[in-house]
């Protein structure tokens, strides 16, 4: 049997700030547990070493304002690079699946990056997905986000992408950051029902989580038939997490992993660094590698101590029911009834960057193309902590763009450069792997090619 | 004067050094008995030397490696305290394994008390089954050894004649399965080692030697011969360490090189980086099992000068598990040494027989020279491939910090290859293959003994401080103490505390005067934060006596 690959990158010398939850100590006790248990010596587990993702890998996903180098530190490139190393190992068949036990996390990072939000700068999963498509031509990919917070960054990046299914279950956005991820967020006109959000009430236990998994997530995955499954393996659903109010155990997480069978699990949040992370990480790793995890137990845990209230259980059933019906009727949906007939679909967004206190206003426009997912334009304004205002425009051409969208995308880029309305204009051409960043003030044009 | 002796699988080598000059060398065949060749080699280099002028004798021996390989060790019972985690089956490495309840966590807090009745029951059963050696190992015992200590006390109370070894005293690093195995092997070999050490000491005494005697460890450091009875397993694989140190001594200080020690049965590869041998990032693998023994990063290729060659059809085959004396030295099978002889890369053996050996392998109209070329190309490719793999492993060592990942990217491959050992003649061929420079220094055949002679005592202390809990642990000493002033305990205090314990440890092992400085091997500090407030700090410190050698060999121009 091929082993499970792991990259453990705790970034012991990197923190957002000394007492921030995303700090050096976060994976210290996880290290102690994994080392003491000797997990990296097990024949079914193979450790790999990270590399640095390149600016190109980042630019394939994000419009970093003003430039990649301004938003990205070495630690981010290593965390993302670790996922890429493991992606290579999965594709070469050297491992059967893999766990990127790395920090800093990434699932709150959206397409446009003005700063750090929800502890994230760049989206490790999205960078991996674009890399997999470019390097290996992978078609359909599913992301299942099991962090307690809505995976809003990943959702934003793939909202109009019919080839990437984003499923996120999380504590209800009315009770927790980032306040989104409701059942009516289902994807844009070209990718309707490629985004599924399952808001769960506070107090959801292993039982509730597995009800969702068995009755909604797994059936949807069976229907979608992805070539690869990526799990955003946040661990803040744990009953001891200080930032959320859920009641999931290490065992619950391991069972989830065993059922989901992701090709790649990527650590996201989880801030009960002593009472949860050492045990949840160990259990997930054992589950991936097919070892018996039934003896992994949090200190102080007693069977039966976490009970789900009948109201919580009923609420979960209602959400599952609602989404299941939508999913089962997906072929009967008339997009025009929902999105109208306009040539472009537009949505406005306000994005708040909690770590850096940045307020961003966005207008996103995607071409409704019968032949491809359509090129996308995003105009975004924000004032950065240094005081400078940025008004940027980014054009994104999808991997399988049709000739018309490809041409129009480039034309839009050239036009935006000339208007003078924007401080920076970006082009993201995923079809031929070309990326450009134009600074209107200096008239400097940066150009990368894959 | 210093004497170094390396008892290898085929030969036992010895040298006598005086002020850095090689004054005498000896090479005698190794037989069944580990003591006899050692004393014979000693007598050779001692000839005509007043024994009282010798200040230091360092011995590198395969004794423990062989005991483990042939499982010629004492029966051991294991008493384990794993607590939650992996299923217990992972730990039953031995017919007599007793699992008792109790658990600690990573900060040394008790999760579950030790079940003393279970320990008592185990003790009675162990005695009934006739075991005398017991290893007690608890998960996270380096963080809190209370359960191990209590279990040992109960075992001794119940069966006073038991000898009990404790996991946390054997190794301070976190890795429970490796700690179990290392404690097990320590228990299994300690008595035989002690017997051997006494015999060596007696042999030295009878020769009028008053020199201090040391034994070489896998990491290239020494321990006082008799004190090493507490850590016999540390002496495994000291042979490659000896050769590596020998090359270090034969090169100018600060040199970077690949060491190729081509022996009869294996070729050992090691790295010297800016004058210091590279230490393996994890404990050594002994007989295919992971231990926590610290050693040099040595790659052993199972091909050497005495490996048997055969022609099967058109295929030329070199056996990694079959060895014979080279044909040119009276053996019955062709070997790489014969090929080296034919092409003039070595002077040993009878050239006529070497030609005959190559003729035995020839196909069609191949000349002996052509066969020899084919043989050496094959062997060279095998070794060069392993050197490449060793470079890659070094460049991809685990890195858990940003700076480590960045630093690793700047690692440049050495371009000097130094050949020592019996088949050092392979070195220029391998170097050519790799596009590197080759060097076979003078005394290459006894570099291992030189390495033993110049090795210094290495000791290490791992200090773990938890100021939130007001406690510290010195793992190697099994000491758990309270901090006097946890609120004002800083990095400086941590270094001072670790240094004091290192000196104390050296004195206890009878090597106090060997410690003339301290090197910080690891220094980690973590804030312990509760709800955005720092409530304490964790210090992880590893300090050691400086690595290095007593002297570089003089009178060699390399
Ligand atoms: Zn989260
Ligand atoms: Zn199109």
Mean pLDDT of chain A: 96
Question: In percent, how much strand structure appears in the residues of chain A?
Answer: 15-25%
> What's the end-to-end separation of chain B, in Å?
23 Å
Most strands sheet of chain B:
6 strands, mixed
Bound molecules: zinc ion
Q: Which secondary-structure class do the elements of chain A indicate? A: alpha/beta
Element order, helices and strands of chain A?
A: EHEHEHHEEHEHEEHEHEHHHEEEEHEEE
Q: What number of structural domains do the residues of chain B give?
A: 3
- Rg of chain A over CA atoms, rounded to whole Å, is 21 Å
The CATH homologous superfamily of the largest domain in chain A is named Histone deacetylase domain
Strand order of the largest sheet of chain A: 2-1-4-10-9-6-7-8
As a percent range, the share of helical residues of chain B equals: 25-40%
| Oligomer status | heterodimer
Largest interface in this structure? A-B, 45 and 43 residues
What's the CATH architecture name of the largest domain in chain A?
3-Layer(aba) Sandwich
Regions with little confidence, pLDDT below 50 for 5+ residues of chain B: none
Which word captures the global form of chain A?
A: globular
Give the spatial strand order of the biggest sheet of chain B.
3-2-1-4-11-12
Number of strands of chain B: 27
Helix proportion of residues of chain A, in percent?
A: 25-40%
Strand element count of chain A: 17
Structure described in brief:
The complex is a heterodimer of chains A (450) and B (558). Chain A has 450 residues and is an alpha/beta fold.
Can you describe this structure?
The complex is a heterodimer of chains A (450) and B (558). Chain A is an alpha/beta fold and 450 residues long. Chain A folds into 2 domains: 4-332, 3-Layer(aba) Sandwich (Arginase, Chain A); 342-449, no CATH class. Chain A contains 12 helices and 17 strands. Chain A has helices spanning 28-36, 55-59, 68-71, 74-92, 124-136, 152-157, 206-224, 250-260, 277-289, 310-328, 335-339, 403-419; strands at residues 4-9, 45-47, 63-64, 97-102, 112-113, 141-145, 164-171, 195-200, 228-233, 264-267, 344-353, 358-367, 376-383, 389-397, 424-429, 434-439, 444-449. In chain A, a hairpin with an 8-residue loop joins strand 12 (358-367) and strand 13 (376-383). In chain A, helix 1 packs across helix 9 (277-289), helix 7 runs parallel beside helix 8 (250-260) and helix 7 packs parallel to helix 10 (310-328). Chain B has 558 residues and is α/β, with parallel strands linked by helices. Chain B has 3 domains: 55-236, no CATH class; 301-450, no CATH class; 460-544, no CATH class. In chain B, 32% of the residues lie in helices and 26% in strands. In chain B, the strands form 7 sheets. Chain B has a 6-stranded mixed beta sheet with strand order 3-2-1-4-11-12, with helices on both faces. In chain B, strands 13, 14, 15, 18, 21 and 22 form a 6-stranded mixed beta sheet that branches. Chain B is globular, with a radius of gyration of 25 Å. Chain B starts with a strand and ends in a 14-residue tail after the last strand. The model of chain B has no long low-confidence stretch (mean pLDDT 92). Classes of the chains: A alpha/beta (450), B alpha/beta (558). The A-B interface holds A 8-14, 18-20, 23-25, 28-29, 31-33, 35-38, 41, 47-52, 74-75, 78, 242, 274, 278, 282, 286, 291-292, 294-297, 299-300 and B 84-88, 103, 105-107, 109, 111, 139-140, 143, 173-178, 290, 396-403, 405-406, 408-409, 524, 526-529, 531-534, 538. The structure holds zinc ion (2 copies). One zinc ion is lined by residues 369, 371-372, 374, 401-402, 404-405 of chain A. Residues 369, 371-372, 374, 401-402, 404-405 of chain A line the site of one zinc ion.
């Amino acid at each position: 049997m091929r082993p499970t690959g792991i990259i453990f990158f705790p970034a012991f010398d990197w923190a957002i700030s000394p007492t921030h939850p995303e700090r050096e100590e976060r994976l210290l006790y996880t290290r102690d547990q994994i080392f003491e248990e000797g997990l990296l010596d097990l024949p079914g587990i193979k450790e790999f070493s990270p590399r640095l993702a390149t600016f190109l890998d980042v630019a394939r996903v994000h419009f970093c304002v003003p430039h990649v180098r301004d938003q990205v530190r070495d630690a981010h490139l290593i965390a993302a690079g670790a996922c890429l190393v493991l992606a290579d190992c999965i594709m070469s068949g050297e491992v059967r699946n893999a766990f990127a036990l790395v920090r800093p996390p990434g699932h709150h990072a959206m397409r446009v990056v003005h700063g750090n939000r929800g502890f994230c700068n760049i989206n490790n999963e999205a960078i991996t997905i674009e890399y997999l498509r470019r390097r290996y031509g992978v078609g359909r990919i599913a992301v299942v986000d099991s962090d307690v917070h809505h995976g809003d960054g990943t959702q934003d990046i793939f909202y109009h992408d019919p080839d990437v299914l984003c499923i996120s279950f999380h504590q209800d956005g009315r009770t927790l950051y980032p306040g989104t991820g409701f059942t009516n967020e289902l994807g844009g006109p070209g990718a309707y029902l490629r985004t599924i959000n399952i808001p769960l009430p506070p107090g959801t236990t292993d039982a509730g989580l597995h009800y969702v998994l068995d009755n909604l997530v797994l059936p949807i995955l069976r229907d979608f038939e992805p070539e690869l499954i990526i799990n955003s393996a946040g661990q803040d659903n744990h009953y001891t997490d200080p930032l959320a109010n859920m009641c999931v155990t290490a065992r619950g997480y391991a069972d989830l992993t065993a059922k989901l069978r992701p090709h790649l699990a990527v650590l996201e949040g989880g801030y009960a660094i002593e009472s949860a992370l050492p045990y949840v990480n160990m259990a997930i790793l054992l589950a991936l590698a097919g070892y018996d995890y039934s003896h992994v137990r949090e200190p102080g845990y007693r069977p039966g101590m976490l009970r789900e209230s009948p109201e919580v259980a009923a609420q979960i059933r209602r959400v599952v029911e609602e989404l299941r019906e939508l999913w089962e009727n997906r072929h009967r949906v008339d997009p025009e009834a929902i999105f109208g007939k306009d040539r472009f679909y537009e949505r406005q967004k306000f994005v708040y960057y909690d770590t850096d206190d940045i307020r961003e206003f966005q207008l996103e426009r995607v071409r409704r193309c019968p032949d491809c997912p359509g090129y996308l334009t995003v105009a975004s304004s924000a004032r950065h902590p240094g005081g400078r205002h940025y008004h940027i425009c980014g054009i994104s051409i999808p991997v399988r763009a049709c000739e018309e969208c490809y041409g129009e995308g480039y034309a839009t880029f050239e036009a935006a450069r000339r208007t003078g309305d924007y401080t920076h204009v970006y082009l993201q051409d995923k079809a031929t792997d070309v990326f450009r960043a134009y600074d209107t003030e200096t008239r400097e044009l940066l150009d990368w090619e894959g | 004067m210093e004497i170094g002796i390396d008892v290898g699988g085929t030969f036992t080598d010895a040298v006598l050094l005086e002020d850095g000059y090689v004054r005498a060398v000896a090479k005698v065949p190794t037989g069944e008995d580990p003591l006899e060749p050692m004393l014979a080699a000693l007598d050779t280099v001692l000839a005509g030397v007043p024994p009282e002028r010798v200040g230091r004798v360092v011995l590198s021996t395969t004794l423990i490696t062989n005991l483990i390989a042939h499982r010629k060790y004492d029966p051991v019972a294991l008493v384990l305290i794993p607590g939650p985690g992996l299923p217990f089956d992972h730990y039953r490495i031995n017919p007599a394994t007793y699992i008792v309840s109790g658990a600690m966590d990573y900060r040394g807090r008790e999760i579950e008390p030790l079940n003393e009745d279970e320990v008592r029951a185990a003790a009675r059963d162990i005695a009934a089954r006739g075991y005398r050696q017991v290893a007690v190992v608890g998960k996270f015992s380096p963080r809190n050894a209370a359960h191990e200590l209590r279990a040992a006390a109960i075992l001794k109370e119940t069966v006073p004649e038991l000898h009990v070894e404790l996991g946390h005293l054997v190794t301070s690093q976190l890795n429970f399965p490796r700690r179990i195995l290392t404690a097990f092997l320590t228990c299994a070999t300690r008595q035989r080692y002690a017997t051997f050490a006494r015999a060596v000491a007696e042999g030295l005494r009878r020769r009028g030697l008053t020199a201090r005697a040391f034994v070489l460890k896998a990491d290239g450091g020494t321990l006082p011969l008799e004190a090493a009875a507490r850590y016999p397993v540390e002496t495994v694989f000291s042979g490659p360490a000896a050769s590596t140190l020998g090359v270090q001594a034969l090169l100018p200080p600060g040199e970077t090189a690949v060491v190729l020690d081509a022996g009869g049965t294996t070729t050992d590869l090691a790295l010297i980086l800016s004058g210091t041998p590279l230490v393996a990032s994890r404990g050594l693998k002994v007989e295919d099992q992971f231990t926590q023994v610290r050693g040099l990063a040595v790659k052993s290729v199972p091909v050497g000068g005495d490996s048997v060659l055969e022609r099967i059809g058109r295929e030329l085959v070199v056996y990694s598990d079959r060895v014979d004396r080279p044909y040119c030295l009276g053996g019955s099978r062709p070997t790489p040494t014969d090929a080296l002889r034919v092409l003039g890369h070595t002077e040993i053996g009878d050239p006529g027989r070497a030609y005959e050996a190559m003729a035995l392998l020839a196909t069609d109209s191949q000349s002996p020279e052509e066969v020899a070329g084919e043989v050496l190309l094959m062997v060279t490719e095998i070794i060069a491939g392993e050197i490449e793999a060793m470079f890659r492993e070094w460049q991809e060592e685990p890195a858990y910090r940003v700076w480590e990942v960045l630093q690793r990217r700047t690692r440049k491959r050495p371009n000097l290859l130094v050949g020592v050992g019996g088949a050092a003649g392979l070195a220029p061929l391998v170097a050519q293959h790799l596009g590197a420079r080759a060097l076979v220094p003078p005394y290459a055949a006894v570099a291992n003994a030189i390495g033993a002679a110049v090795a210094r005592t290495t000791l290490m202390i791992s200090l773990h401080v938890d100021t939130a809990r007001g406690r510290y642990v010195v793992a190697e000493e099994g000491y758990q103490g309270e901090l006097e002033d946890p609120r004002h305990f800083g990095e400086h205090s941590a270094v001072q505390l670790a240094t004091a314990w290192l000196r104390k440890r050296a004195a206890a092992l009878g090597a106090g005067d060997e410690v003339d400085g301290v090197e910080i091997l690891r220094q980690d500090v973590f804030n312990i934060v509760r709800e955005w407030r720092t409530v304490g700090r964790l210090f992880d410190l590893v300090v050691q006596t400086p690595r290095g050698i007593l002297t570089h060999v003089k009178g060699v121009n390399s």
